[in-house]
Fold each of these.
Amino acid sequence: MTHRTRIKICGLTRDADVRAAVEAGADAIGFVLYPASPRAISLDRAAELAATLPPFVTPVGLFVNAGRDEIEAACAAIPTLLLQFHGDETPATCESFERPFIRAARMAPGFDLVDFALQYASAAALLLDAHVEGYGGGGKVFDWSLIPPSVPAPVVLSGGLNAANVGEGVLALRPWAVDVSSGVEQAKGIKDAGLIRRFCEAVREADARLEDAATR
Ligand SMILES: O=C(O)c1ccccc1N[C@@H]1O[C@H](COP(=O)(O)O)[C@@H](O)[C@H]1O
């Protein structure tokens, strides 16, 4: 296969939803460690859920302007945790944990993504989300034409994705990965196994179409 788009499902709070995401083929599972979010869970709960993940499925901790102690405690409790910085964290802060991290970029007209990528050059990937009030998880699609033709970092496409639009995003933008929260939910923090499965199937169908086009 020429390209296998990685899938991250974010904002999980329940064991059954974690199982559904893993069974559907998710590569990464996100836990919101941002107390102001309706999807927030405690670090103890995130560690419990992370302990149920099989090998090769990555737990991701989402932080928004968290204190150093909080992030260090999460790294200690979940040794394989990938950090997702979704607030106003500086490059120096993101790097200071000496852990792989992904950095959210809040996409809006005038935002210079290439400059942002250069500033956060040590990020494992940039997660492109819509610029919404409350930092993220708003289920809002941003204008994909704001993404420059070449971004010097792996891109995680996010913001308002669902089973109906993710295929188009994969075909048009060929991101390294996609990330979804609202689009696979019944209510905030309560996922829907059917929507998760359909989301993952839509990504795989788009991957297969890309593969087909590449081998013609
Ligand atoms: O999920 C939240 O509540 C949240 C809060 C603060 C920052 C980010 C948040 N979620 C992340 O936002 C993107 C897009 O989510 P959606 O699919 O549009 O709902 C995703 O990475 C969420 O994990």
Note: The domain at 6-215 is CATH 3.20.20.70 (TIM Barrel).
Amino acid sequence: MRQFAKPALALVDSMRAAAAEDPMRAIAFGGAPGSNSHQAAMQFAPEALPLPCFSFEDALDAVATGAAGCAMIPIENSQHGRVADIHFLLPESGLYIVAEQFMRITHDLMALGDGPFEAAYSHPQALGQSRHFLAERGIVGLAYADTAGAAAFVAESGNPFIAAIAPRLAADLYGLKIIEQGVEDAHDNTTRFVALAKDPLDPATITDAQAMTTFIFEVKNIPAALYKALGCFATNGVNMTKLESYQKGASFAATTFFADIEGAPGDPRVDVALEELAFQTNEVRLLGSYRQARKRG
Ligand SMILES: O=C(O)C(=O)Cc1ccccc1
């Protein structure tokens, strides 16, 4: 079912109506009102009109179709690693990363009853970030599209034996009781979000901060392919801050990598590194250059 639970619908509809009045001011996010992505979007652009979408894919589509000026999407978490499917969804969307945003994430356990609980619903990232908490209490984690949506679902169910793991705001919005605060396993739990838009940011405009560039590349199916690709950055003194591999297609022959570097096209060292990379690989695609929001290291 790709529909928010009833307790969220009135608020979703009013936010959608406001966003439809001025789409370029709208910022789409995957999740119900009160989700972490909603809160990250508001921290990033307090004046923007939040546009709740059922999934991350729907939020990206909202930008592609002009229903929103940009989308705020979680990409990786300090505790639970990459956010599932984002590495496929971002390149497929045809959109560009124009900003990054870090947000401390804290989850609460919330419900209609007082427990004990058979199950807790939430986004898989939140369940992963609260793995020890759930295991210690024997609560089964069940995946839901987003944290706040899970809270609305629990409220709608009327079942006092199920709970949700979600931001505190979701309990206020959907009428649940906070059972336990701060259930995330690591108290420095942080998620990195990215803002995506139809048009890339011109790297030449990034003069007031360290620039970052995100790109994907597919290595050739030959010995030392990755070594040669990484050598392009090593010899040009470009700092790579992230590198993740994933498979595209069923051949399992040539791997695709998702990478972040410090710097942007226009910087001669980056230009030469990317030119050499194109020579060493099957494909290179830039996903965007943007201001670094947090110093790495
Ligand atoms: O479901 C949400 O609240 C989201 O925005 C996804 C998410 C979940 C957990 C941590 C960060 C983002």
Note: DSSP finds ten helices and 15 strands in the chain.
Amino acid sequence: MCSLTKTLTYLRYSNRVLGLSPRLYSSNTPQYETLAVSVPKKYVYHVELNRPKNFNTFTPTMWKELVTCFSALSDNPECRVVILSGQGKHFTGGIDLNGFVESASKAHELSDVARKARFLYKMIGQYQDGITALENCVKPVLAVVHSACVGAGVDLITAADVRYCTEEAWFQVKEVDVGLAADVGTLQRLPKVIGSTSIARELCFTARKLPAKEALEIGLVSKVFPDRDSAIQQVLEVAQSIASKSPVAVQVTKQSLIYSQSRPTPEGLEHIRVMNQTMLQSDDLTKSAISQATKTEAEFDDL
Ligand SMILES: CC/C=C\C=C\CC(=O)SCCNC(=O)CCNC(=O)[C@H](O)C(C)(C)COP(=O)(O)OP(=O)(O)OC[C@H]1O[C@@H](n2cnc3c(N)ncnc32)[C@H](O)[C@@H]1OP(=O)(O)O
């Protein structure tokens, strides 16, 4: 082996062992089996569902990796905003039906109803955690959907902060068609996201395909782009704009929105009051004020 090949082999090996990838904007990009993480711009992380040959369907590994990945990004001071998209033909075809049948059939190996129930209760909880990981991540998550977003995909994107899609994208709350009541978030989040229980219930009961145009009309997505590349490019600009602002202000804003979405207003007000009795003392406040007054860009410390 020539010395250059040896060096490259060593670098690839040490990066893999250390969980690092040689990226320009960060020294901190762990890789996963079902998710690809990159850092396209400073402070902007891109998470891609990475099972393109299987339409990015959700496997037991993917549910677990969503938790690990979004929890790591939440804790990563170099990350200020996350873009979530899918590789390949579709954003996602939902849960991997073969894997799901296999996992669920493990319950049937148990002889007693209480033990079967406990097994399934745990499994559903683990899957719910994979979706809720997006909400628990204090950095804003911007989802970009192209082509199909089926079943678990809708659960996933309704836990994101902002949603965008391409013109040929479509959404389907498919669960009733496969004999399930959706149980990892759509029933709880979709009505709040679109602000219409009537439309949400119609979509959940009928499992009809919702095209991009209608998704925009009902407020499921903020904007529709011609194709995936232009969508990612434009959303990258939104992400950079968010990343340029005080991470204290942005992250506490997300925490307050999430906390308040399922609580009465007085509780939300108390929560932000307690948060801001500390956060208003941050240097970010002064830096932002100076930047606004002088029309200059502020540099904020990592958070
Ligand atoms: C505790 C429970 C937690 C979560 C539960 C979540 C529930 C769900 O996610 S419900 C939704 C489940 N998904 C589906 O029902 C997928 C339905 N499939 C489709 O809509 C389409 O196949 C497609 C994903 C949009 C892809 O369309 P297209 O590009 O036209 O390819 P096809 O020819 O339809 O499919 C090719 C091949 O892929 C198989 N396949 C598609 N999706 C899945 C899947 N989710 N799991 C397993 N296999 C899937 C499809 O059956 C075809 O297989 P062949 O053997 O080639 O026929």
Note: The CA atoms of residues 263 and 269 lie 10 Å apart.
Amino acid sequence: MTAPLIIALDHAHLETALPLVEALDPRRCRLKVGKELFTREGPKALQALHERGFEIFLDLKFHDIPNTVAAAVHAAAEQGVWMVNVHAAGGRAMMHAARDVLDRHGLKTRLIAVTVLTSMDDAGLAEIGVNSPAVDQVMRLAQLTHDAGLDGVVCSAREASALRDRFGQEFLKVTPGIRPGFAQQDDQQRVMTPGQAFQAGSTHLVIGRPVTRAEEPMAALAAIEKELAEAERVSLGER
Ligand SMILES: O=c1ccn([C@@H]2O[C@H](COP(=O)(O)O)[C@@H](O)[C@H]2O)c(=O)[nH]1
């Protein structure tokens, strides 16, 4: 199995993230840099992680007018990140513009779109005027994302099997909200365990606090890898 794990470096400073980074191995995982770390440290954080051999998912979830988002996606891709994302709710024209700028410049950075945040449940969606279950809204935004030619979506693992059925294995399903049995749910609503997520068809599992806040992060990571290997054995046995 090529490592499907993406560790979310939700640290305040590069300096506090580096001890964990030094313990990790680029063959075992990719790294996700999000709003907090990037806002404080900027491109130098990407450079430091690239120098250590990691592929980076720059998770800034761009959501603005097409011209602005395309320029931001271009800027991210120029820094050599493996993956970048936008909000699908920004709409078809915005996603087209982002796709187009990468294609015109021959940039291979994966471009994906956030459907419904994993911290949202049906009640939370209703509060913002979306009166359909999360899974329906995910499928609606994923269809738009697919039509706009993006490489995949951010969704919860709970929607992964429906997405696999409609769009196939190649369309990326990047799933945060992963909670192993030993971890707390925190602010996540639509959660699954690593094994369940793998079996449901997640192509990449984003994991933050269950590893980064664990008393022994490397032991937590090893337990997750063991669970994934077991899930893979089961799924191979089923074929
Ligand atoms: O729908 C989404 C989109 C992004 N995230 C990000 O993933 C990680 C999850 O961290 P945990 O500590 O494992 O909860 C975090 O960086 C979020 O910004 C998400 O959770 N849900």
Note: The first strand starts at residue 5 and ends at 8.
